[in-house]
Amino acid sequence: MRAPEGRIVAGFDVGRTRDRSELAIFEEIEGRFTCRMLKSFEGTPFAEQEAELRRLLGTLPVARLSIDRSGIGMNLAENLAREFPQVIGENFTNEAKERWATDFKILLQRRDVTMPRDRDLVAQIHAIKHRVLPSGKVSFDAERNARGHADKFWAVALACQRERQADKPRAGEICVRVLG
């Protein structure tokens, strides 16, 4: 196996009984993302999921692993972040999901992401729906089906997200919310 030429970034959407956990690993070279691995964990105990992620972090030069820390993922994210500083716990808020979905859509439009031909992944990408809630807030989500509710999509979006640092000034960045 060849050594990576770029940064290795990963996303992990945590599930257990109703949903699968999904791992997506990408190599990023000059803003372009190439999928190196997609892996599903169906009904896998959390201890086994954590052991697999520890193996990954101990073997590959992972620059960032963004992991769902909402709900059942909190313990897993905390355990890994204590030992591995490149593990970033992510809260699945409507605002965060909007940012990840938008970042990923831009990558697709620019053709800056290469993924395997996987019908399930394509179906999950297309299943994500943009809705405006009665409160006026935006929601990005998918209907639940036998395969989950776009868990693979969220793992990919976590891996490919544009990295923003809260402590740095955001000069030159313009944020726009498009309604409709």
List keywords for this structure.
alpha/beta, about 180 residues, six-stranded mixed β-sheet, single chain, two-stranded antiparallel ribbon
Total number of helices: 5
Give the strand content: 25-35%
Low confidence ranges:
none
Strand order of the largest sheet: 5-4-1-2-3-6
The biggest sheet, with number of strands, parallel, antiparallel or mixed sense and barrel status, is: 6 strands, mixed
Overall pLDDT, averaged? 82
Rg computed from alpha carbons, rounded to a whole number of angstroms: 16 Å
Rough outline = globular
- Briefly note the structural class of the backbone: alpha/beta
Give an overview in words:
The protein is an alpha/beta fold and 180 residues long. The chain has 5 helices and 8 strands. It has helices at 46-59, 74-83, 94-109, 119-127, 151-160; strands at 7-13, 21-29, 32-41, 62-68, 87-90, 113-114, 129-132, 138-141. The strands form 2 sheets. A 6-stranded mixed sheet has the order 5-4-1-2-3-6. A two-stranded antiparallel ribbon has the order 7-8. Strand 2 and strand 3 (32-41) form a beta hairpin. The radius of gyration is 16 Å and the shape is globular. The N and C termini lie far apart (46 Å). The model has no long low-confidence stretch (mean pLDDT 82).
Brief summary:
The protein has 180 residues and is of the alpha/beta class. 33% of the residues lie in helices and 26% in strands.
